[in-house]
Amino acid sequence: MYKDAELPQLNIITFGGFDIKAEGQSLLDDSGRSYKILELLKYFVTFRGKRLLPETIIENLQPDNEYQDPKNVLRTQIFRLRKALKMLAPGKDTSKYFNIIFSHGYYMFELGNLSVLDADEFEKLLSDANQIKDIQQDDAIDFYKKAISLYAGQYLAECSASVWTVHYMNMDRRIVFVGLIHILTPPFLHLLMICFT
């Protein structure tokens, strides 16, 4: 068991395939988690920090299922997810990693200060690069390269058939393309533009 002062950082991977790692080791490899619980976690990670109605969650994750009491089914799944997250999180205080809040009829998933999400890092690196690209081009290129190195594939690739991921998959592809444009030197950029026009 970890002491609070030595708790490791959790890395939540969304590019390529979904994973949660601590100290470089996957915490999901042999977790035996059910598909629906992992899907719910991916959904919450995608919509972190947003207030979500139970009906919206059910509609997005299980559009074809006609439950007699869908809100109760969701409550049960969230209970199981919270239990699974407690088992995944190093230490006793899971709020340092993640928290699922229910308030005023909405659910909200929050990342704690010991969780790092690759998609957030990706967006921050691109934002930092865009802020300095006109005045510090070399530093901006370094930020773009770091961002692109985080991009290990499509956002939640295993969920590509899910409607709720389409916006994020398309946005990330576009952002990577724009980042590549900023990195490439003019001759290669010209060639790339010819290929895509």
Rg for CA atoms: 19 Å
Summed up, the domain count is: 2
What name goes with the CATH superfamily of the largest domain? Winged helix-like DNA-binding domain superfamily/Winged helix DNA-binding domain
CATH topology of the largest domain: Arc Repressor Mutant, subunit A
Main sheet attributes: strand count, strand direction, barrel closure: 4 strands, mixed
Number of helices: 7
Task: Identify the strand order in the major beta sheet.
Answer: 3-2-1-6
Spell out the helices and strands N to C: EEEHHHEEEHHHH
Fraction of residues in helix: 40-55%
How many strands? 6
* Name given to the CATH architecture of the largest domain: Orthogonal Bundle
State which percent range the strand residues make up: 5-15%
Point out poorly predicted stretches.
Answer: none
> What is the CATH C level class of the largest domain, in words?
Mainly Alpha
Mean pLDDT, rounded to whole units?
83
Terminal CA distance reads: 56 Å
Q: What's the overall geometry?
A: globular
Structural class: alpha+beta
